Amino acid sequence: METIYLKQIIEMAEVSKENLNIRKEIILDEMSDGELGKWIREMYRAKVREADETIKNITNKINGQ
Question: Residue ranges of the alpha helices (H) in 1-65?
């Protein structure tokens, strides 16, 4: 894959860490606000971990590792 496309993937992964989409069913579910906050934070952390892993893998590919 060409380097320009790999760099675009890295950029998209970085941008993806800026937002988290949550279905309305999750927000309207019968849980306390504290539980909802914990759940949303965990969802965001998982998303960031995944994006960081993608960035690491693509960077290694660019660097030939």
Answer: 3-16, 24-28, 33-62
DSSP symbols for 12-28:
HHHHHTT-----HHHHH
* Distance, CA of 6 to CA of 27 (rounded, Å): 35
| Average pLDDT estimate for 5-15 | 96
Contact 29, 20 (CB under 8 A): no
- Domain residue ranges in the chain: 3-62
Residue type, 63: N
CA distance 14 to 54: 10
Q: What is this structure's pTM?
A: 0.83
